[in-house]
Sequence to fold (438 residues):
Amino acid sequence: MFGKIRTIAGVNLYVTYTDVGALVLMLLAPVALSLIIGLAFGEGDNAIDLDTAQLLIVNQDETLQVQDQNGNNRNINWGQQAFEQVLIDNIPPDLDELIDAERFDNPERARELVEEGEYDAVLIIPQTFTADVVAPERQGVVELYYNPANEVTATILLTITEQIIAQINTGQIAERLLVGGSDAFLIQKAIALGQTQAINLAASNVLSQLFQEGTPSIITLNTVDIEGEEQTFDSLQYFAPSMAILFMTFAMAAGMRSILEEYSNWVFQRLMITPTPRWAYMVGKMLGIFASGVVQMILLLLITSIVAILLGRRGTIWGSDYIGIGLMIVASVTAASGLGLLITSISKGVRQADNIANGVILILAMLGGTFIPVENNAILDFLSNLSLNKWGIDGFLKLSDNGTLNDILPNIAVLIGMGILFFAVALLNFNRRADLGG
Fold:
């Protein structure tokens, strides 16, 4: 009996893959459609490319000479030490990828260049900046003149400028509180403990670090490597499986419809005269149709993968979990062949089966997001759960996005569940039909 089942299944496979019209529908049409749509939408990723901020620095600050608590003179020019050396002369590693700064003399012309779009911003440091910072009763002010049209660049420049100013403020507060005069906290402690010389030496070391002629450590750029890799989305990852499932479902419906054709052509009746039970015929037909669907999906997978490589697309459009891909193919074909058998079981003839299949398959395809994603619409997103297309596309998308077998288990379970339900209802309908007796 197994030999008869195998023969019936083999005949069905042979007829399917020697029919030129069927091959065009099964292979060329889905590849062509997925290719056209894939080329139209292209590919993209989640990487953000930041343009280097073009910054002009107009430093008009005048050097100020001050004395420390030991009477030693030191020169301070915060415009040069805090801004020019940090942003131009000794820019920290990786910060040079964000900022390209250069010196400029004319503040009015610098503003004009920003307005003309030649530069993103100009940092203007006035003549009295250092003097204002050092004087307790005054406040130092710098001007950052920027183009607000580029919000990202403006935010970067504002953040870096604020960090430099915060560092300057920290140094000034530390000096005034700890070593700023006879009433400073550290000086009072030194007098009380009789350790004036030792604390003066420590204070000198602190000030030399805060106000050294060299570049102060004002900006620290921390780069955080977020776990994960750059996520690249290729529209072929969506439309290759969606078109494959759509046309495979059409092929399954056409295959199951052949049961009605063979009955109308008296092939079924003649076969029933031989010692071949009806169940063996049905099992052979369904196995043959199922096998043709699996072969179709595998061929589409191979063809679209080759096309993607020829187009220079990055990565794989189906993923690299071959076990998961195989299970998704089997599950999708199970659901589609079950649907095809169900449509055949409720149809009274070949023409009616074609009409019902075309309508049902297209409705389920649109509902399942075959042509456009539907998850942005709450109602359609809920109704799409009734479509085998949704579960198939979603499963293949998970695999293309480096998903694991555990990620697609719900998709496999739903698709196989749909297939079992469709098969059960279809077989009940066939058993009730008098014209399929014998």
